[in-house]
Specification:
single chain; 87 residues; alpha+beta; Alpha-Beta Plaits; globular
């Protein structure tokens, strides 16, 4: 199992908190192959943390996070995989 942490920068304060809620729910309800999703907003950044058993480099979660950001935010800053750890 891998625990993956991804951040998205330059998220507007007016939309960040609600986007975090919407994205977490999207993963909980529709993308259940990622376990224990958590999405939070602080200081202009969205942080997504999730676990799965197939994404050793975090790129699959990154792609799906990008899809959600496009749907819920439209515009946002760069995205970075902060870490992938085997748990």
């Amino acid at each position: 199992m891998y625990k993956i942490m991804i951040e998205c920068l330059d998220v507007a304060p007016g939309s960040g908190p609600q986007a975090a809620i919407d994205i977490e729910q999207e993963f909980r309800i529709h993308r259940t192959w990622h376990e224990r999703p958590s999405c939070t907003y602080a200081n202009g950044k969205l942080l997504l943390i999730a676990r799965n058993d197939f994404d050793a480099d975090g790129k699959a979660l990154l792609d799906e996070f990008w899809d959600c950001l496009a749907a819920y935010l439209g515009e946002h800053g760069s995205m970075h995989i902060l870490g992938v750890e085997q748990v």
